[in-house]
Each structure stands twice: as C-alpha cells, then as structure tokens.
Design goal:
Layout: H1 5-10, H2 21-29, E1 34-37, H3 44-54, E2 58-62, H4 66-78, E3 83-86, H5 93-101, E4 107-110, H6 112-115, H7 118-124, E5 129-134, H8 154-160, E6 166-170, H9 175-185, E7 192-194, E8 202-208, H10 212-222, E9 227-231, H11 234-245, E10 251-254, H12 260-272, E11 277-280, E12 295-299, H13 305-312, E13 322-328, H14 330-342, H15 345-363, H16 368-375, H17 388-391, H18 398-408
Parallel strand pairs: 1-6, 1-7, 2-4, 2-5, 3-4, 5-6, 8-13, 9-11, 9-12, 10-11, 12-13
Helix pairs in contact: 2-3, 14-15, 15-16, 15-18
The structure holds adenosine-5'-diphosphate (ADP) and magnesium ion (MG).
Length: about 400
C-alpha cells in the first residue's frame, strides 16, 4: 500500500495525521467500507481528500450544501488538487463532465439529488472511480437531526459500483443514528471509527434567560475575540446585532434572508476579523474554517444536542480557551413542543426524545460535559472542571424547577 505521509506533508502541508485520521485513511486505502464519526473540526475532509490524491481514479463526494461544496472546492484547488463541483449553479458542467471522463479529476462534489439519479450513474460508469465519500452522513437517517430524503436514494448508486469503497463521515451521530447510517449505506459494524468527542478547551455554560440581550452583552464584554451568537429568527439576528453594536463592538448579522452579496460579505468580514461578532441563524457555520472563534453563544435553545455540539464546536478550533454559553427559557421548550406537534407523526417520538435530552443538559446541576459526552457514547469523568456547574457548583436553582415543569407538561 502507498505511504500517504509524503502526500500529507507535500500536498496538504500538515506534519502528521491528527487523531483517528490515520486509521480512517488506512482503511480507505485498503478499500474497506468505513464510517468515520469525528467531531467538527477534527479534519474529516482530509480523510477522503488524501485518498483521492493517492488513489487512481476520481473520488465522488456527496455533500448536502452547495455553499459547502464550493468552499471545499476553493480550498482543494488552492493546494493543487484537481477538483470540481456538479451543482445547479455551476456553469461549467459540460467541462467538468469532460474532465471526469478523461480521468482528470481527483474530487467530484455532487449533491444527493444529483447523485441518486440514473444519468449520474451512467456518467460514473464512464471513468475510473477511487472512492465514494458521503459527507454529513447523518442526513441519511430519519433518526438523525438533519434528515435529507435524497440521501436514502444513494444506496443503489453505491451498490452499482460494489468494488468502489465507501467512506461515510459525520460529526453528529448518537448510537441510534450510527447504526442507521451503517445499515442504510451498507457499511459493516466493525467498519466504524469513532473519535473522541471531548473539546476540553471549550468551557460550557448554560443559564436561564433573564434579559438575554444584556446577558449576551456581558459575555461579549468578557470576550474581546471573535464570537458567534446563534439566534432563532432572522429578525432576531438583526435586532441583536444592532443592540450589540451599541456596546462598541464590530458586529454583523447573517441569515438566509439577506441579500446573497451582503451575506457573503458579512461572512468574509467575520472570517478575516480578530474581534468581530456575528449574530446568525443556524444557516451560518457549516464549512466555515475559522480557528480563533473565542465564544459561541445561543440566544435560545438549539434544536438538539447534536446541533448544540456542532454549533459550539465552532469555538476554539485552535485549541485555545473558549466559551460556549447557552441562554434558554421555558418559552423555548413550549415553542419546541409546539413545533414537534407539527412534524410528521412518525417523526414525533424521535423529536421528543431529542428535546428531552436537551432538557437534561440544561437542567442538570452536574457536569455539562459529562452529559454531552455520554450522549455521544464517550466515557467521561464525573467532573470536568471546565463547565459552569463544575466551576461553581449550584445551589438548588429555580431554573431546575422551571425546566422540569415545562418538560413534563
Ligand atoms: P471537519 O469536516 O471534521 O469539521 P475539516 O475537514 O473542515 O473538519 O478540517 C478542520 C481543520 O483542520 C481545517 O482547517 C483543516 O485544514 C485542519 N486539519 C485537518 N487535518 C489536519 C492535520 N492532520 N493537521 C493539522 N490540521 C489539520
Ligand atoms: Mg466537514
């Protein structure tokens, strides 16, 4: 088998593998079907990009978001990897198809809608394939927090090329979702590699909402570095951005309703800045590579523990001390329960389980990190020493009662 290390160093410029990357890459190079469960920021992309360069043929990457694909394309092209995207907004699709046929692509990114179609299957049979990479693989599971029906249609494509190895990647899989991914994508149970989920440099804090604008202003005053504040509504992001701007900090808003040019500029400004705050909906963050985010705040309950972990995981990727502060209220639980009442019946039980798990996290007077890590099946000490409850063991707080009341109602 080819030694990937020289390419890791020359093409990617990294001195060595990080964590489980090496095990994942070895499995892929050995042609074994694999599910890699690795936290956000752990370096999942490398696990298929490196084999894509090393192996003969094209690595087909299924990815759920066009913006994500284009970010990856830019980064890959910048280091000399031969990559292309096939999405509805690409004007060079004919050229990409021709390059693929000539065997000139290491990486070909496609959306699941495209990947699951018959025309795409025909195309793939016209050149050599190295690997199928299914990014954000939790989208295949109805149990997962981000179900995308088109991911379900990938299996026939994979099965049409039985000799091409599959690599599924996700950051956010609880035990149930993992089992589902293995089953749906035809990966053996011993083909799963799970990296540790702990992010020891992130200090977790969770507080009941009181005056959330003031609470976030206090956090912002404490933290001069870049920060992300997740807000539930589009209007809310703009309102909060305005309020925080009054504290003298540089602030931008980000949500899917903004003019695309403004949205792109706000994102670029934030990524380039050493002290900016961005008030955003959860539309912000996927695929954004900013290592020095010093805090992530939630001005309201996130959708699930998976979402919370993924969003807070954008803090402190450089390993320096960072804060994740969640502010929640009883009204958040009421709204969440109402939302659950509106989803398809067969999904309600899963959603309810997710809300209960979230309730346990905000309600606990014990270690936050322990609950978080247990949720993902990681071992955890009783006391992490770097969350609000471990640092300041609470006396019986009213919030506990409030949460219990609203969770059991
Ligand atoms: P994920 O998809 O798991 O969230 P990414 O693939 O976006 O993570 O990688 C996160 C960051 O880690 C990127 O900046 C990437 O360049 C960096 N990275 C990946 N592998 C390594 C490595 N072996 N050594 C150093 N940095 C790495
Ligand atoms: Mg990724």
């Amino acid at each position: 088998m080819i030694d990937p290390l020289p390419i890791l160093q020359s093409t990617f410029g990294f001195p060595g593998f990080r964590g489980v990357q090496e095990s994942v890459v070895s499995r892929v190079l050995a042609g074994e079907n694999t599910l890699a469960v690795m936290p956000t920021g752990a370096g999942k992309s490398l696990c298929y990009q490196l084999p894509a360069v090393v192996l003969e043929g094209t690595c087909v990457v299924v990815s759920p978001l066009i913006a994500l694909m284009h970010d990856q394309l830019r980064a890959a092209t910048a280091i000399g990897i031969r990559a292309a995207t096939l999405t509805s907004v690409d004007t060079d699709q004919m050229e990409t198809i021709a390059r693929f046929r000539r065997g000139e692509l290491d990486l070909l990114y496609v959306a699941p809608e495209r990947a699951s179609g018959g025309a795409f299957r025909d195309l793939l049979s016209q050149a050599k394939l190295a690997l199928f990479a299914i990014d954000e693989a939790h989208c295949v599971s109805e149990w997962g927090h981000d179900f995308r029906p088109d991911y379900r249609l990938l299996r026939p494509l994979l099965d049409a090329f039985p000799h091409v190895p599959r690599l599924a990647l996700t950051a956010t899989a609880d035990a149930h979702t993992r089992a589902d991914i293995l089953e749906q994508l035809g990966i053996p149970h011993d083909g799963m590699i799970v990296a540790g989920f702990d992010r020891p440099n992130i200090q977790y804090r969770i507080s009941p909402k009181d005056n959330v604008t003031r609470q976030i202003a206090d956090l912002v005053a404490e933290q001069p570095g870049p920060g992300i504040v997740y807000v539930q509504s589009r209007a809310g992001t703009e309102k909060l951005a305005e309020a925080l701007a009054k504290t003298g900090r540089k602030v931008r808003a980000y949500h899917a309703g903004l003019d695309p040019a403004v949205r792109a500029r706000n994102q670029a400004d934030f990524v380039a800045s050493e002290d900016m705050i961005i008030c955003a909906t959860v539309a912000f963050g996927m695929g954004i590579d900013k290592p020095d985010v010093r805090f992530v705040a939630h001005a309201g309950l996130p959708k699930s523990i998976e979402g919370y972990y993924q969003e807070t995981g954008r803090a402190g990727r450089d390993g320096d001390p960072s804060i994740a502060h969640l502010f929640w209220g009883a009204d958040d639980f009421a709204k969440a329960r109402q939302r659950i009442g509106e989803v398809e019946l067969h999904r309600q039980a899963g959603e309810r389980t997710r809300l209960t798990a979230l309730g346990a996290l905000v309600e606990t007077s014990g270690c936050r990190r322990r609950i978080l890590l247990k949720h993902f099946g990681d071992d955890a000490p009783a006391n992490c020493g770097n969350c609000d409850n471990c640092l300041n063991p609470p006396a019986a707080i009213d919030a506990t009662e409030v949460a219990r009341k609203f969770l059991s109602a």
